[in-house]
Amino acid sequence: MTIRARPPGWMPYERRHERLLPLHQFGLRLAAHAALAMALVAVCLALGALGYHSIAHFDWVDSLFNASMILTGMGPAEPMPDAASKLFASGYAIFSGVAFLSIVGLLMAPVVHRFLHHFHLEIMGED
What is the pTM of this model? Predict the structure, then answer.
């Protein structure tokens, strides 16, 4: 049996024939994914607030409010004053939809991987 070195990576997952991670290490993996997801949410909010502030000329609080409403899927809170701000809001809404799905995938990845890995080990009769 040849042992291959793992490629360097941020958070390597268990391979097919490796045991499940202990719960405390799995918790650390979940925490790392949650921290990355929170960082992505912060970046998305910052981009939206900056866009609303510079393009729609909202103050910072209204910019953050509109960005958070769009990012959570609620829709814009205030009417857009001109065509440029409407185009930005439209693009930011599309970006927010993709970002939301990506962040949910990032949060679910460790749980889904653990479930599938456990299921695979049961089939192989190892756990």
Answer: 0.77
